[in-house]
Design goal:
Elements: E1 13-19, H1 26-34, E2 42-48, H2 55-62, E3 67-70, H3 77-87, E4 92-97, E5 100-102, H4 106-117, E6 122-124, E7 127-129, E8 135-137, E9 140-142, E10 148-150, E11 166-170, H5 171-177, H6 189-199, E12 204-206, E13 212-214, E14 222-226, E15 229-232, H7 234-251, H8 254-279, H9 282-289, H10 292-298, H11 300-312, H12 318-321, H13 330-338, E16 342-343
Parallel strand pairs: 1-2, 1-4, 2-3, 6-12, 7-13, 15-16
Antiparallel strand pairs: 4-11, 5-13, 7-8, 9-10, 14-15
Helix pairs in contact: 6-7, 7-8, 7-9, 7-11, 8-9
Length: 344
């Protein structure tokens, strides 16, 4: 195994990997970073989130070049990445899932685009399914309710968001945006960061070349089509609906929010009632939909404070904000194509 890694060099890129019970995937992830082309000065930070499978000890003994941050308790993806970013020395951060593996030219491709743009930007690469090699997306567009719509057009680079499994951001921009809100926990933090960046006037671009392999849905289960049916979990769906709503409250310009938020809340609860009735399972309502309004109330102070700060920093016009939006609800299209989701 070639390791073009020199810890004595000042790092240009800090690769931040949040790990929780990743023994089965961490070798593939770390080797993909260590074997990058281009001799780019890189540091690797791994935040172990109180794993119980021995992966922290394994990383410590097999990858001495890695800066390992061991958490005594499970704190979630957002806190893990905030801690790594605070310790990172590189000019650029690459947030990388432990179940993702970079193509050999990934860092070289991202660095070349960052230099070409000559301005801070959030960048991403094509995401491929690790199991079958199929293209999952090249970033995402949005429907009105911030449901991500996979982009598979390699010529469409300006997108609404890039996936957090492989997200490139200058360290200075991360600091300006304040990283992830700790209280997001997990799911939707990439949506938040990209929306904040776009609203503040910074590009969000998905490149049509190079890429990474990702075991999509491995961390939380589901979140993808299996056997022509959408499969997800109660936990993933609940976190997704909650955090998408949080981002809507924080980032949507007021002229949109005033009518989109009430419509969203009405439709999401109607969706919950219909799914509960059709599946004859009250767990659907109790675990996914019932917690949404209480969560908004619990976090209303944080949401209001962050919204005020975000909107004060806004530099993007309403027209520019709406560029990556498509007006047909994505859930409706998925329902027509794949039927009701399987929930576990």
């Amino acid at each position: 195994m070639t390791r073009p890694f020199d810890a004595s060099q000042e790092p240009l890129v800090s690769v931040c990997i949040a790990n929780y019970n990743g023994m089965e995937v961490i070798d593939d992830c770390l080797r993909s970073v260590l074997e990058q082309e281009g001799h780019i000065p890189v540091e690797i930070l791994v935040h172990d989130d109180a794993s119980s499978d021995g992966s922290a000890a394994y990383i410590r003994s097999h990858y001495p070049e890695v800066k390992l941050i061991e958490s005594p308790e499970n704190v979630g993806f957002c806190v893990a990445n905030n801690r790594m970013a605070a310790a990172a020395m590189g000019k650029y951060l690459l947030l990388l899932n432990n179940d993702a593996a970079l193509y050999p030219d990934a860092l070289q491709t991202l660095l070349a685009e960052a230099k070409r743009l000559d301005q801070p930007a959030v960048l991403g690469l094509p995401q491929y399914d690790a199991a079958n090699g199929e293209l999952i997306d090249i970033g995402s567009l949005f429907d009105p309710f911030l449901n991500p719509i996979p982009n598979r057009n390699p010529d469409r680079n300006e997108v609404g968001m890039v996936i957090g499994a492989c997200l490139w951001i200058p360290n200075t921009l991360w600091q300006e945006l304040g990283g992830f809100p700790d209280w997001f926990g997990s799911i939707g933090e990439d949506l938040y960061l990209c929306c904040r960046a776009r609203l503040t006037g910074y590009p969000v671009r998905a490149l049509g070349i190079s890429g990474y392999r990702h075991r999509a849905g491995a961390s939380f289960g589901g979140g993808k089509v299996q056997g022509d049916r959408l499969a997800t979990t109660f936990r993933r769906r609940a976190l997704s609906e909650r955090n998408k709503t949080f981002v809507m409250v924080i980032c949507h310009p007021g002229s949109l929010l005033v009518w989109l938020l009430p419509l969203h809340l009405a439709l999401i609860h109607l969706e919950g009632l219909l799914l509960t009735i059709i599946k004859s399972d009250s767990t659907v309502w109790c675990k996914i939909y019932a917690p949404l309004l209480p969560a908004l109330w619990r976090q209303h102070h944080e949401l209001f404070t962050l919204r005020c700060r975000t909107q004060m920093q806004r530099k993007t016009s309403l027209r520019a904000w709406l560029v990556p939006f498509r007006w047909i609800p994505w859930k409706f299209k998925m329902l027509i194509q794949h039927g009701l989701p399987n929930l576990t």
